[in-house]
Amino acid sequence: MRGVHSSPRPDPRKGIFETLLVVDGRPVELDAHLDRLAASIEALYGGGAATDPREEIVERARGLELGRLRATLAPGADGRLGTEIVTAEVDPAVVFPGLERAVSVHTILLEGGLGAHKWVDRALIEETEARLPADAVAVLVDHGGAVLEGLRANVFAVNGETLSTPPADGRILPGIARRRVAKAAEAAGLVLDETELTVGDLMTADEVFLAGSVRGVEPVRAIDGVELELRNDAGARIGAELRRAWMPGRVTV
What we know:
single chain, alpha+beta, D-amino Acid Aminotransferase, Chain A, domain 1, D-amino Acid Aminotransferase, Chain A, domain 2, 2 domains, 9-stranded mixed β-sheet, 4-stranded antiparallel β-sheet, 6 helices
């Protein structure tokens, strides 16, 4: 576990953003992302953007076979929110990856987490994250070792037929993929338990995976340098459910 931060919080003047998967020109889970964006805009800025970003998002997604789209909203000099949209292609191998692309997780201590908004300002963790191995995925933990979330995904642990994930209690982003995983768990025959997890709980779990809006379900192979026994039964079942919803017509990616 690396880094300790408390007090200042992210600066809302730098803006907020959403990152969406784009499949065959279609922005995936667009309504859910816009709803979350609207909730953050209301909570942080008390009003809407200068223009509704939906039309521009849909237009920019056209022609992108498989990629990601990032929509950033930030206040300008006049205080009104402006929108910037950036797109990029995505390597098909990193979307719903198999065990051969399982990720290594390294924890960062951040008191109270980043909260329920997707901040542009990551100054609280940038310095610590920069010291992690290049291929590591940073996961935030609170004091006492309580696991919060990955910086690009929510965290899940499997024990038997129980799927556990930290509660959306204001310390973590209520992930779009997180909500989809909760629905897919039932279809996959798993019982969802929103409960506090520690790093120790992850170390002893049958299986650990991440779930995010661009890469889908990612198996975890190591935590803070400790190798885990790689299993992917539950993650694979849930990943298959999400893949059918997000990538219809694509058997493999």
